[in-house]
Every structure is written in structure tokens, then in C-alpha cells.
Amino acid sequence: MKFTRCGLDIAKQVFQVHGVNERGAVKGRQQLSRAKVLEYFAQLPPCLIGMEACAGAHYWARELSKLGHTVKLMGAQFIIPYRKSGKNDANDAEAICEAVGRPNMHFVAVKTEEQQAVLMVHRARSLVVANRTAQVNQIRGLLGEFGLVVPKGIRKLRAQLPQLLEDAENGLPALAREVLAGLLEQLRELDRHAHRYDLKLRELAQQSEPARRLMQVEAIGPQTATALVASMGNPGVFKSARSYAASLGLTPRQHSSGGRTRLGQITKQGDRYLRTLLVHGARAYLRVVDKKTDGKSAWVRRLKERRHINIAAVALAAKHARIAWAMLAKGTEYRPAPALGAAT
Hints:
This protein is of the alpha/beta class. 53% of the residues lie in helices and 11% in strands.
């Protein structure tokens, strides 16, 4: 059996294959168990394999590439339009096979094991931070049941909760004090976990030459730099810096017709975590932009004067994403824009 290209719909245990020849004629439909996938493709001549970029896709892409096949990953939103009827494994595999053959399809770079390991640190840290936020909200809610209101902010809770537990005249029952003391210890443990992940990300950033170069950009620290390097994968997948910024959802949504251009809010597509890091970094930069004289700061100040500060933050985040792509794609150092009036 020989395929020119095929679509592989992956799952935990059941996989579906749909293969076609160079004329697009169907040459095989096969359902495979997880244990039989590599054995099946090892017997096929090298071909183009398309897969949806979902859980486990990068692992299977690496394994199938070792067998000589060319593997390309695509976002689910680009595959759905090619599914002709109801959703099932066979129709999904056929849609993947059709989509991977389109010449202008957007593909996702296959990540290495090292890149996925770095992203695992980010995901673990995000889980700890989310649990810590939930813990803080729960403690504030429980204190409110006894008429004790703590101002917003994790720092204020850390400072005031021990004082409330020691205050014998605030009306807290002994059982409530015991429960809150346990929750405070859990909060401190989450703080320790988050701090360890922060130290690990700083270490990874110093060990990575691309991440060290990215940290030369204002508002890009170890967390954002390591996430950019690990998430982007191969910069050559994107045609331009704007394409990369668009993949993160930092460009306006278009609703244009009849030669009239209409731009709306940002699309918010792509990696939400990475987009959040870039926007938060831009917000931090906006707080000190009035003290800077370089060209980028002057551009941001002019933008902030005529548009809302949130729009300026997103625009600056998009600019940082474009700068990051250019630095990683071309292997260059950061070259800040000269100050206004400076000689070129």
C-alpha cells in the first residue's frame, strides 16, 4: 500500500487513518490501536502525514518523522471546514487528509522534547498560581463570614491573616482558627512551589542563548523569554513577524468587504498564556515609558495620548512579539530604536 498523503486522527487508544494517492483517490481507510500505529506506518513508504495539533500530537509527529515520513500539524479550526458530514473518527481523518494538502494551510511547528519540557514548567507554575489565587479567595470569603474583611491582594492577606489568628478578641471560634491556620500553611506551601518554579525558569533562561537575547528587549523577562523560545519552535513556520503576532491573537479582527476595511478588537486566537505574558509585560513598560527617550518609547507615548491605555498595551505587546520573531528567525541581537533627533 502506498499513500501520497494521509490524515491521522489520534486519540488515547483508537487511531483512524485515511490515505490517498497523488490523484486524490482514496487508497486506504484503517482503524488502528495505539500499539499498532508505529508498526503500521513503518511498513509504508515515506508520505505526508497530517494531524490535528492536540494532546500527544507532538510526540506522534516526532515518532513518525523518525520513520521517514513528513508530518505536519494543523489547528482544529482549520480542519473543521473540510469535514463534509457528521463528526466521527473516519470523517475527521478524511478532513485532516484534505486539509494537509492545501498549499496555503497554516501549520504548527513540531516541538522537541526539550521545548515541551520547558513548557511543562510553565504549565506547572500556572497551576500553582491558579491554586494559590483560589486559596486566597477562599480564605477571604471564610473570614468574611465572621465579619473580618481583608483588603484585596495576596500580600495584604499574608500580612494580616497571622495577626487575625493571634487576635483573641475578634470573635473567631477555636475551630475556625484551626482551619484558617491550616489554610495559611497551605498558602505558604504554594508560595514555596511558585518560587521554585520561578527560580527554575530563571535558570533555564540563562542556559538558553536565544532566551538571553530576548531578555535584552524591555518588558521581556525570563518567564516570557523561555515561553517564547519553547512555544515558537521553528520561526520559519511563520511568513513574517506580523504573521507570528497574528497567530497569538494580537492583531485586529477584520470584517472588510467591498474594498472597505473594518478593523475590530484583537482576535484572541492562539496561545492565550503567551499573549497574557506579552500584554502584562507591555503594561509594566507603560508605567515607566515617560522616563525613556528612545524611538519605541516615543511611539508608545504618542499612541497612549490618542488611544486608550489598554489599546497601547496590546499594540506594544504585538510589537514585542514581532521583535521576538525577528530576533529568533534571523539570530540577531536586540537593536533598540534610536532616540528622536539622534543622528543615524
